[in-house]
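Hello again, I could really use a second opinion on something today. I've dropped the whole record in just underneath, so have a look.
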Amino acid sequence: MIPNIYSGNYKLLAIVPLVVIIASLAILLHFSPVEKGIDFRGGILADLQYGKDAKLNFENAAVLEDEFAKRGFADARVREFENPLGKVVEVELSRDANLSRAEEQKSLFFAKIDEVSKLEADVLATNNTASKEKYAIEREAVEKAALEIFSIAGEGKDPAQMTTNEMKKEVASAYAELNDRYKEELTVAFEELIGEYESISFQEISATLSSKFFDKVVWISVISVLITSVAVFLIFKSVVPSIAVLLGAAADIVIALGAMGLFGIPLTLPSFAALLMLVGFSLDTDVLLTMRVVKHREGHAKDRAFESMKTGLTMSAAALVAFGALFVLASLTHINTYYEISSVAIAGLIGDMVATWGINGVLVLHYMEGREKREREGHVEKKPIFSSIFRS
């Protein structure tokens, strides 16, 4: 039978999780901060398929990354693995600076060009002075954006000599040509540096789209924190138990992020989804512990904490088995999405076991000791609201 870890000086249990959290913060702040993946920083991810007997032109990934850098393809990341069809080389590249600048100008151009067309028609129909002035300002803005795109594409066209419809066609054509030229340079580099491939697939995330993704992630995180905090405080209506629950969720995220920095797992949409999932799982175990210790009154608080720990560890073990299977599948199939979700989840679940039954358990038991002492002395605390809902 497993002995009750909370018997004796249970406060010593907080040492290990505190050390893990401090180590995770040190990794994040000084040694290996988490990097944004292609979803949040934009770029191109290319998968090149080769035959099983294909001989590749590079010695290792580091050498190939240096060769890409020499050709002007910055921040190249290369991964080689095998699938049932043969060898696969995965190349992730940051988006080209000129292409990103052209995309920004294209977005600005097409955001304004329809308004310019309307103003142009209004000026021709009414000859209104105010419309003329506004048209001149807006026309100048789209001409400036178009001129920069033409300049990046190496075309000497003058947008001032074009109608709005002509500008639309020429800007779209120039940007498409610039994009095609970049991909053609990439494919030539792939063939020369890696070898002639059988097939290739591109995944491209623009700077604008990646920025929107990141903004949404920040907004979702803020809303999640606010809603979770309000719900926890409404349920317990006591500062210490509520803070203990929220600290547990925060500790899980810090530990998971530390593992991401240590093992080079980037922040992508799949890894962010895994982090959100960890918040929910952490709240499950933290609320389980806090409800059983604070709300229930049978037996001793230490025994109730230990019983909840056995239930919580069973939950964590089941989740670890599930995500462990996903990790094995990711290792066999080399699917990045599976790898990112499973590895982040496993790190967070291990962190949850350490933080919940170390830090949270210590905080809640310390709170209950003080509360029971005050009750013995005749100072009865008010019951938390909604307590009857959660009483078993």
Remarks:
- The radius of gyration is 29 Å.
